[in-house]
Amino acid sequence: MGSTEIQTPASDFRYIPLSYSHADSQASALRLILTIHPDWEGPDNKIEFVRFTDGITNTLLKIINRKPGWTDAQIDNEAVLMRAYGNGTEVLIDRERETKSHALLASLGLAPPLLARFNNGLLYRFLRGKPCGHFDLISPPIWRGIAQRLGQWHAVLPSQGINATTVKDLTVTETPDAAINQQDEEFSVIQPRRAGPSMWAILQKWILALPVATPEQRSRRANLQEELQWIVSELDDGKGLGEDGLVFSHCDLLCANVIVLPSEDGSALSEDGIAQVSFIDYEYAVPAPAAFDIANHLAEWVGYDCDYSMIPTKSVRRQFLTEYAKSYCQHRSIDAASQSEIVDKLYNDVDRFRGIPGFYWGVWALIQAQISQIDFDYANYAETRLGEYYAWKRELDGSREKAGDELPLREQRWAQEA
């Protein structure tokens, strides 16, 4: 991690009254970086911009200064990441919550320090390391490192995400019944066990944001709302780890959001052969059941192309949870004798939640299909991910077996012992 700036509440961060412009990318980014680094202006500096992503959710630029005589490590330690928000993303993401969550994580050494906010984004320190690729997630040294880091997240972070004194600022704005369209008079908004921000409230917000211009769209949204009501009634039971069954969760641990950190000797592994990792991108971080956050990550082992042959088997899932529980107990100062009990409970809970990531990202993709301008078939992706959810539900009620249909590959892999 780069510099060690002292973290302050998000409302106290430096605010820069400027905006990043996609049409004038380099010039607008240069104005932002020179505002926080005026010493980077002049003939002894060589500022470069490295584009990481450019999509509907954000534009991410790494801004570096190749000063003469600086080593690569020195350059990276002073590098800044600029995240500029995409148009329309407020439908999916609460940017104020993201900023405050990042600040909390940074204060505990779990995220790179925030430097400033600007009109449509954030500036923060670059995190040295290597982003994971699809196949990295199935590497035991890496998934063990992920399990340990996730156990730490769930153990040390308050379940509300930020301090209780400011949690009201992060509450997801739920559309009241009176604001729902007249054709939705029968529409009943869910009420999770705990008020305030949670993945349940996020899902409700997303379903309310689905298009209703046609009878087919209205019917689809009504059906998804019925499914959400059933899911909440079954799984929002307050029996998981954390306060009232919720822990502060990342909720988007795909491969690119896992960074393998270099050790002091430059290698990627610690003395015990486990990779040291950190998590980035906290756009979807919110209180959620630990089993959801874990199941959501394990679902990402299939990659962007949904290769279900990559789903972790029973034995691998138990090993993952063993590493997780070891870390969770260590950071919560829980007696080691409780680890096996936590593993057993989580093993069953993750199994119960295995279909929910498909529902979560399926609804998300339906919205993206309406607002995204990037070259990706979100509509088809939505059907694929929702298909995971419905396949899981068919196993629960036995309808797949009763119909004599073949067990889907994802379910086959999930039920495989080794």
UniProtKB/TrEMBL annotation:
Pathway: Phospholipid metabolism; phosphatidylethanolamine biosynthesis; phosphatidylethanolamine from ethanolamine: step 1/3. InterPro entries: Kinase-like_dom_sf (IPR011009). It comes from the Eukaryota. Gene3D superfamilies: 3.90.1200.10. GO terms for molecular function: ethanolamine kinase activity. One of its GO terms (biological process) is phosphatidylethanolamine biosynthetic process. Its EC number is 2.7.1.82. GO terms for cellular component: cytoplasm. It is an enzyme of class 2 (transferase). Belongs to the choline/ethanolamine kinase family. This is ethanolamine kinase. It comes from Penicillium alfredii.
